[in-house]
Amino acid sequence: MPVGSTKRNYGLYSYGTEIQVTTHLDSDAHSRRFHDRFRDHAMRIMAKYDFKIVATWESKKDNRTEFVYLLEWPDKETMTDRWRKFLQDQEWIKIKKETGEMNGPLVGEIQDRTLYLTDYSPREVLAK
Known about the structure:
Strand order of the largest sheet: 3-4-1-2-5
Low-confidence stretches: 1-10
Structural class: alpha+beta
CATH topology: Alpha-Beta Plaits
Radius of gyration: 15 Å
Strand content: 35-45%
Number of domains: 1
CATH architecture: 2-Layer Sandwich
Order of helices and strands: EEHEEHHE
CATH class: Alpha Beta
C-alpha cells in the first residue's frame, strides 16, 4: 500500500498484568465500513462471549488512521477461550463473508504481541 493509505487497528487485550497488542493494517478507503462492522456487529457478538471492551479510539498520524481498542480479561486462558469462540461464531463468520463480498477485505495483515506490566507501573489494572 502507498504511504498514507493504510489504517492501523490496535487491539490491546489486558489480562492480569499483561497486554496483548494486535495490529490490523487496512485501507483508509474502508474506514467507515470497518467502524460500522465493528460497532454494529463485532462489539455485539464479542459481548456474547464476555469480552470487556474498556474503550475504543481513533487516531490520525502521518496521514494514517489508527483504530485502537482496549479489552480487559481476568486471565490468559479466558482470553484464549473467548477469542476462539468469537472467531468460530457462525454469525460473525457470515458477517465477515458478506462484508468482504460487498467491500473487499476490511482488515489486511494482523500482527500480535504481548506486553508485560512492570513491577513499578503506577497502575496494576487498566480499568475497574
